[in-house]
Amino acid sequence: MPALQNLLDTLREDLEAARSRDPAARSALEVALAYPGVHAVWAYRVAHRMWQQPGLRLPARLLSQLARALTGVEIHPGARIGRRMFIDHGMGVVVGETAEVGDDVVLFHGSTLGGKSMSRGKRHPTLGDGVVVGAGAKVLGPVWVGDGVQIGANAVVVKDVPAGAIAVGVPAVVRRPSAKRSFDAEVDDPAIYI
Question: Over the stretch 36-47, which tens digit does the pLDDT of each residue have?
Answer without folding.
Answer: 999 999 999 999
